[in-house]
Amino acid sequence: MRERYSTELAIVSGIIIAVVAIAFALVQSPEIYQPEKTMVSIAQGIPHPVEGMEKCNSCHGIKGMYPYPPGHLGWSNQSCVKCHAH
Question: Which tens digits make up the pLDDT trace of 49-76?
Fold first, then answer.
């Protein structure tokens, strides 16, 4: 009886962990989850020319001159221009 309960508990726990991990990935990744109307209306435009400054993380990294919010950690440079119009 205990072995069966332990097995069922492990399976249910694994499913819950997988669902939470997938939900977190969807919320954190702009390439996967893009409610465009919300993001575009909230995101500010890029106030400088992008040409020659394609590596956003060089100035806007966590320790950069103009740091981005912690929620942007791990996003690619290409995702910046998807939400922030230029």
Answer: 888 887 887 788 777 788 887 778 777 8
Residue whose token pair is 């919320």: 27
pTM, rounded to two decimals: 0.41
Q: Which of 63, 84, 62 is nearest to 72 (CA)?
A: 62
Integer Rg of the chain from CA = 19
Domain hosting residue 2, numbered range: 1-33
| Same domain for 22 and 45 | no
Do 68 and 39 share a domain, yes or no? yes
Structure tokens at 2: 């205990």
